[in-house]
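Technical annex, item 7. During the second reporting period the consortium partners agreed on a shared format for inverse folding records so that results from different sites could be compared directly. Each record opens with the tokenized structure and is followed by the designed sequence. A conforming record, contributed by the partner at site C, is shown below for reference.
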């Protein structure tokens, strides 16, 4: 039987738990690094207050959330 002091046993246990948490964090972090892109058809620019906002509805006309102005999507954007 191996004789281990109580404080050494606790230190080894805590170290193993921390190493396990570190590797779990490391592997889950890699899976969360996804390339997020936004299509330019969802980006709207208000012609009155120059606010840039996102509207995921594919409408021709959108309402600015800041000033309430109606904006029309131009053909080239």
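Designed sequence (site C submission):
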């Amino acid at each position: 039987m191996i004789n281990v002091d109580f404080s050494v046993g606790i230190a080894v246990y805590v170290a193993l738990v921390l190493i396990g948490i570190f590797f779990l964090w490391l592997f889950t972090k890699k899976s969360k690094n996804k390339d997020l892109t936004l299509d330019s058809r969802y980006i709207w620019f208000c012609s009155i207050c120059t606010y840039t906002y996102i509207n995921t509805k594919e409408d021709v006309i959108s309402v600015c959330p800041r000033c309430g102005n109606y904006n029309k999507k131009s053909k080239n954007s």
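Residues 40-72 form one domain. The CA atoms of residues 11 and 17 lie 10 Å apart. All partners now use this format for quarterly exchanges.
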